[in-house]
Specification:
With 738 residues, the chain is of the alpha/beta class. 40% of the residues lie in helices and 17% in strands. The protein has 23 helices and 27 strands. The strands form five sheets. A nine-stranded mixed β-sheet has the order 2-1-11-10-12-13-14-15-16, sandwiched between helices. The protein is globular and about 75 Å long. Residues 17-42, 216-239 are annotated as: Disordered. It comes from Tetradesmus obliquus.
C-alpha cells in the first residue's frame, strides 16, 4: 500500500475551526498541451512601452514610503487567505510523503516561529540553518525570519570545516540541522565552541528537521567531508552515537529539539496569545549567504529584507506565474538563486515539488512542472539524453529523416531570429539586406519542415521532458547550442544572471524579445554600468567592459569584513567581476537594445606572452558542445599558447565504444579528444589565431559537488581543480610554449 501523505492540518484543525474564514479555492486553469508560444514579431514592438513601465515601476519603488514596506514573511497570511486550499508544497521523497496547502503551511511557519521563541530565540539573533531541500526548510527559514532573527544558511552535506567556520563567523546562538547525522558530524565543533565561550552559553538550542526514517535512501546528499563515524550515525534514529551526542550537548547546556517538539511548543505559545510576528524594515538583516563560488574562503553576504522583497516584487517582469502552477525544486534552497525563485513562486500561489539531482529526471515525468528552475548543466544533461535516445532509436532511413528535420528546424529558428531582429550577430550593426533576404527565404522554405518536426519529433520530446511552460536557467552561462536546441524544441528558456551579492538577479530574458545569447534586460530599478576594466571610465553601448551594478538588490556588504566590502565596490557601484556589453539602441532592424551580453570573468582573463587577452568562457563552452567532453578548463597565462584540461563524459565514451580511437588506450583517447577540441574551437564564429589550443591534458575523473570541484550550481571551481590535479596541471603547462 502506498504511503499516505503526512498533513499538518489534522493537528491544527481543532484550533482553527472557531475562527477560520472559509476561503474560496482558486481553480487552476488547464492549458492545452505544449509550452507557451513565442511572441509574434508584432509584439516585439511593445519594447518601448515595456521600458516605460519599467521606469515607472522603478520610480514608484524608490518613492514607496518605509511604513508601507511588507517583508516576504507577510506573504504567508495573504496566501492562506487567497489560496488557502491550493497545495503549496509536495515533499514526495519523504516517508511518508508530505503535502501542505497554503493554509497548512502558514500555520506550520507560525508554529515553528513561536516554538523557536519558546526555545529562546530573540529579535536580532542569528541561527545557522544547515539543511537540504525540503518542505521543512522553508518552514524553518521563514520561522526564523518571523522572529526578527536572521539565518546563516548552508547545506548539511558541506564540509565540516566550512560549517564550523560559518557557525563561528556568523555568531549564531542556535542551529537548525537537517538530521541526526549532521549533528553527529558537527559535534566536535559544537562542543569546542560551547567550552571556549566566555560568559553566556553560545548555543541556546539545536533543532532537528528530520528523523532518519523519514528520509528515503539516497534522498540525503552524501557529505564529502563526513567521517566514517558520521556515516554510521545515520543508520538508525536511535543510534548510540546520536544518543551520546545529545547527552554531551545537554550536559553542556544545549537543548536538542525535534521538529515536532518545536511545533508543539509553538502551538501552545500561540494558543495562549504569547507570540506575534516581529516587524522588519527594509534594512533589517534577513540572511547571511556564504559564498561558495569558484574562489577560496567563503564570505558572509548580508542580505536584508528589502533586498529579498525587491526581487520577489519584480520578478514578474520576466516570469508570469498563476495560482496553482507547479515548479520542480532541484537546486539547494540555501543557494540564493533557488531561494529567491522559490520565494517568488510561493508569492504567486505556485506549488513547489521537491526533487534532487538524483531523482529529477524521473520526477519531471512523474510530476510535470509548469516552471523548471535549473542550471545550464541540467539542461545539457537533458539534451544529451534526448539526443542519445534519438540516435539509438532513429536508425537507417528514419534516422536520416529525423536528422534532416532537426537541421531544418535549426536553420528555421536561426533565420527567424534574424528576421525578428533578435540575432546578436547584428546587435551592434544592421544585418545587410542580402542577409535579411536570405533569412526570409530560409524561413519560407523551412516552415513546413519545422511544423513537421514539431509534430513528429519535438512534441514527443516535450512530453518526455515534462516541462509545460517555462524553463528558467541561471547560475552559469548557457551554451549557444543549448539555447538553439531548446528554441527549436519550443520550450522557452529564460536565462538570467546575477550574484549572491545582488540577491541575486541583475538581469534576465523575457518571453517578449527573448534574445538568445544574452542575459536579457536589467531588473526594473537595477542600474548596470559598463566601464573600462582599468580606468573604470564608462564605455559606450556595444563596447565590452567590466559591468558594475547598483540598485535595491545589491547587498550592504560582507558580514564582519570591512576590507572585502570596500574591495567589492567602485565609487558606490558593486563590481560584478563580469565582462560584457550592452546592445546599443538605434541599430536599424534590431529589437535588442538594452540587452546585456556576458563575455567572461575579468579575473579569468588569460594574458598570453604576446600580450593578447583571451576570455576562456566562450572557448570552454564551445569545447563542452562536444558530446565526449563534460568539462574543459583553459590554461596559458604568460605562455605563447593555450592549453586545456579536458574531463571526458564517461557515459558518452562508453556509448561511443565502437568509434575509431575510442577505447581504453589513453594515447588514442588523448589524440581523439585533441582532434575534437581543435574542431569545436576553430569552428567558433569568433575564433581568432590566439585562441588556438596547443595541447590538452585528459583527466579521467569526474568533477562533482562532493569532491569540491563543482559549485552547487554545477560550475567548475577552478582553484579547487588546480589544487586537486596539480600534477596534471604542471604537466600540461610544461608542454606549452613559453
Amino acid at each position: 500500500m502506498p504511503a499516505r501523505p503526512c498533513t499538518y492540518g489534522t493537528r491544527i484543525a481543532a484550533r482553527r475551526a472557531a475562527s477560520a474564514a472559509r476561503v474560496t479555492t482558486t481553480s487552476r486553469e488547464t492549458t492545452a498541451g505544449g509550452p507557451p508560444r513565442e511572441p509574434s514579431y508584432q509584439q516585439l514592438q511593445q519594447e518601448s512601452h515595456i521600458r516605460t513601465i519599467a521606469a515607472e515601476r522603478s520610480a514608484a519603488t524608490a518613492a514607496e514610503p518605509v511604513d508601507d514596506f511588507q517583508p516576504i514573511t507577510a506573504m504567508w497570511a495573504r496566501n492562506a487567505a487567497q489560496w488557502g486550499d491550493i497545495v503549496a508544497v509536495r515533499d514526495v521523497h519523504r516517508v511518508p510523503p508530505v503535502e501542505l496547502t497554503y493554509r497548512q503551511l502558514h500555520e506550520a511557519v507560525q508554529d515553528f516561529a513561536a516554538g523557536l521563541k519558546a526555545a529562546g530565540l530573540q529579535q536580532g539573533n542569528k541561527v545557522c540553518l544547515f539543511a537540504e531541500s525540503s518542505s521543512r526548510w522553508i518552514v524553518a527559514d521563514q520561522g526564523i525570519l518571523l522572529n526578527g532573527a536572521a539565518d546563516a544558511v548552508r547545506g548539511s552535506s558541506s564540509p565540516v570545516d566550512e560549517l564550523a567556520f560559518i557557525t563561528q563567523h556568523s555568531g549564531s546562538c542556535a542551529l537548525v540541522l537537517q538530521d541526526r547525522a549532521t549533528l553527529v558530524k558537527l559535534l566536535p565543533t559544537l562542543l569546542a565552541g560551547q567550552q571556549g565561550q566566555q560568559g553566556p552559553q553560545p548555543f541556546k538550542f539545536i533543532a532537528m528537521l528530520w528523523q532518519d526514517e523519514q528520509q528515503q535512501p539516497g534522498s540525503r546528499p552524501a557529505s564529502r567531508a563526513a567521517s566514517s563515524s558520521s556515516s554510521s550515525s545515520s543508520s538508525s534514529s536511535g543510534s548510540e552515537e546520536y544518543q551520546q551526542a545529545v547527552a554531551q550537548l545537554e550536559a553542556a547546556g544545549v537543548a536538542v529539539l525535534g521538529y515536532e517538539a518545536v511545533l508543539a511548543a509553538g502551538g501552545q505559545l500561540r494558543a495562549g496569545g504569547r507570540w506575534e510576528a516581529v516587524g522588519c524594515s527594509r534594512s533589517s538583516l534577513a540572511t547571511l549567504v556564504y559564498t561558495s563560488g569558484t574562489t577560496g574562503h567563503p564570505k558572509g553576504v548580508c542580505l536584508s529584507h528589502g533586498n529579498l522583497a525587491y526581487q520577489v516584487n519584480h520578478l514578474d517582469y520576466f516570469l508570469q506565474v498563476s495560482p496553482g502552477d507547479s515548479s520542480l525544486s532541484l537546486l539547494p534552497p540555501w543557494h540564493i538563486y533557488q531561494r529567491t525563485a522559490a520565494y517568488y513562486l510561493f508569492s504567486r500561489g505556485a506549488c513547489e515539488v521537491f526533487s534532487s539531482l538524483r531523482t529529477f529526471r524521473d520526477d519531471l515525468a512523474a510530476y510535470p512542472p509548469d516552471h523548471f528552475v535549473c542550471v545550464p548543466l541540467v539542461l545539457d544533461s537533458l539534451h544529451s539524453k534526448v539526443m542519445a535516445k534519438l540516435k539509438a532509436e532513429a536508425t537507417g532511413a528514419k534516422g536520416a529523416i529525423v536528422a534532416a528535420l532537426l537541421a531544418a528546424s535549426a536553420a528555421h529558428v536561426a533565420a527567424r531570429r534574424t528576421v525578428a531582429g533578435l540575432d546578436l550577430t547584428y546587435a551592434r550593426a544592421s544585418a545587410p539586406a542580402a542577409v535579411q533576404l536570405a533569412a526570409l527565404v530560409t524561413m519560407a522554405v523551412t516552415t513546413p519542415l519545422y511544423a513537421l518536426a514539431q509534430n513528429l519529433v519535438f512534441s514527443k520530446v516535450r512530453a518526455a521532458l515534462g516541462v509545460r511552460k517555462t524553463i528558467v536557467s541561471g547560475g552559469g552561462s548557457l551554451p549557444p547550442h543549448l539555447d538553439s536546441w531548446y528554441e527549436a524544441l519550443g520550450l522557452p528558456v529564460l536565462n538570467g544572471w546575477g550574484l549572491s551579492e545582488t540577491s541575486p538577479v541583475l538581469a534576465c530574458r523575457r518571453l517578449i524579445a527573448n534574445v538568445r545569447g544574452s542575459v536579457g534586460l536589467p531588473v526594473p530599478g537595477t542600474r548596470l554600468l559598463v566601464v573600462d576594466p582599468t580606468s573604470h571610465k564608462p564605455l559606450p553601448d556595444g563596447q565590452q567592459g567590466l559591468i558594475l551594478a547598483a540598485g535595491p538588490g545589491v547587498m550592504a556588504g560582507y558580514y564582519n569584513d570591512a576590507a572585502a566590502t570596500r574591495k567589492a565596490f567602485i565609487d558606490g557601484w558593486f563590481d560584478t567581476g563580469d565582462l560584457g556589453w550592452r546592445a546599443p539602441a538605434g541599430v536599424a532592424g534590431s529589437n535588442m537594445a538594452g540587452h546585456i551580453v556576458l563575455s567572461g570573468r575579468a579575473k579569468d582573463t588569460i594574458v598570453l606572452l604576446s600580450g593578447k587577452n583571451v576570455e576562456p568562457a566562450p572557448i570552454e563552452a564551445a569545447l563542452e558542445r562536444c558530446p565526449l567532453i563534460k568539462h574543459a578548463l583553459l590554461l596559458g597565462q604568460d605562455r605563447r599558447e593555450l592549453g586545456a584540461l579536458v574531463f571526458p563524459d564517461e557515459e558518452a565514451l562508453a556509448a561511443a565504444g565502437g568509434l575509431d580511437n575510442i577505447d581504453g588506450n589513453d594515447e588514442k583517447l588523448q589524440a581523439q579528444l585533441a582532434h575534437e577540441v581543435a574542431k569545436y574551437n576553430s569552428t567558433r564564429p569568433d575564433y581568432r589565431p590566439e585562441d588556438h589550443i596547443g595541447h590538452i591534458q585528459v583527466i579521467r575523473a569526474p568533477l562533482s559537488v562532493e569532491s569540491g570541484t563543482l559549485t552547487r550550481t554545477m560550475k567548475p571551481r577552478r582553484p579547487a581543480i588546480m589544487e586537486l590535479y596539480a600534477p596534471q596541471v604542471q604537466q600540461l603547462l610544461g608542454r606549452l610554449r613559453g
